[in-house]
What does this fold into?
Amino acid sequence: MSVINPDKSIPRHIGIIMDGNGRWAKQQGLSRIKGHRQGAETTRSIIDACQDIGIEHLTLYAFSAENWNRPETEVNALMELLEFFIEKELKTLSKKNVRLRAIGRIDELPNRTRKALKSAIEKTKNNDSWNLTLALNYSSRDEVIDAVKAFSTAAVKGTRKIENLDWERFSKYLYTKDIPDPDLIIRTSGETRLSNFLLMQSAYSEFYFTQTHWPDFTKTHLEEAVASYQRRERRFGLTGEQIEKTPAST
Ligand code: FPP
It folds into this structure.
């Protein structure tokens, strides 16, 4: 039986830092690449679980801008795994009316990975039942730099006014411009940091850290994270008393 409270709201958007593939593999006496393969299996089952639970948006940190510094064989294996994943999942995503998006410096990905990704994004762009976003070659700091560059260009051209800039307008220049901020961010495998993931968008997110390595993460673990989220009081800078008077705070 699920530990999710049916009387409380569930997160609309969950972001996941899928960590621990390497440590899981080491514990099993397997190569790191086998750990990533097993991680990809978990990714598939967690996408299904999010849909079952009713979460509208899932964003997965699949490859950070810093991950290029890993050994070349591991980087190549991760790119191949991603291509395989995207190509294999495309049918299911289309059947389930899922829209795929990507955030990050996508144009710097290897040709084959970029092509597979762009084609899947294009083919699913009119789907509107559910939303999957892959963070690839992603860095929050790069995202801010790219947004500042794009805004400055518009300001120089005269299509945007510097004096009118506020968060709402600036956020339209982020990679995440058409997805809501994450309500809950989960990181597996015991580390309690964000590692450059959605730093701007997580200003009011709840965080859930678990010791479980990503390849061992199941729907039951996801439900525990959602139940933990439901026990939090999100105040967005208000007082607890103000929140109690707002019915939507459940
Ligand atoms: C972190 O584990 C994981 C990654 C850097 C890659 C994430 C990739 C997957 C889950 C598989 C492929 C993804 C998709 C979307 C198909 P780690 O290698 O840092 O683990 P460690 O900290 O234990 O070494």
In short: Residues 109 and 136 are 8 Å apart (CA to CA). The domain at 13-139+182-231 is CATH 3.40.1180.10 (Undecaprenyl pyrophosphate synthetase).
